[in-house]
Task: structure prediction
Amino acid sequence: MSLDSRGEKARVFFALWPDAANAARMHAIAQQWHRNFGGRVTREDTLHATLVFIGDIALDRLPSLLAVAEGIQTPSFDIDFDAGGCWKHNRIAYLGMRQLPEALQNLHFELAARVGAAGFEIEKRPFSPHITLIRKAACGNATMENPINKNPAEPVTWTVRDFVLVKSRISANGSRYEQIGRWPLLEDKPTS
Result:
């Protein structure tokens, strides 16, 4: 599929993508939770945290969206996914954050502002970074005895060194993701 295809659409979003070791750790947590909550475990190679969700756009607008991310000057930073939860309304079991790092908030805000200024519509709900571990989870099974209502034994922590633009395709077998752009963050993490 070429970038200049007229009339065709792509479903896109900016995201943080974990390295292989952290993706494996999160997948192991998902498999453990699956014993209590059933549902469909997210494939290890698709685990991510959405930064800015754009949705469906015409393929011929992809170059403009790719240009939006150029020149972001954010230093790399650490994130901790250190809390679990389950949303009953959409039956999603997820890893979340007890505290949102300022650097992550700033990256989200700058990227969302640039996307909006370029004329793209973005999702309006509040920014709540999370990693979807299980879809169609039986959230009603979430009791204090079950691990989903407790913090993971060890937080899943990684240094964010880049962010990506992802094109998704939804099928009966779940979503398929293709990273179509990657932008590095600055190497110097801020000191505490």
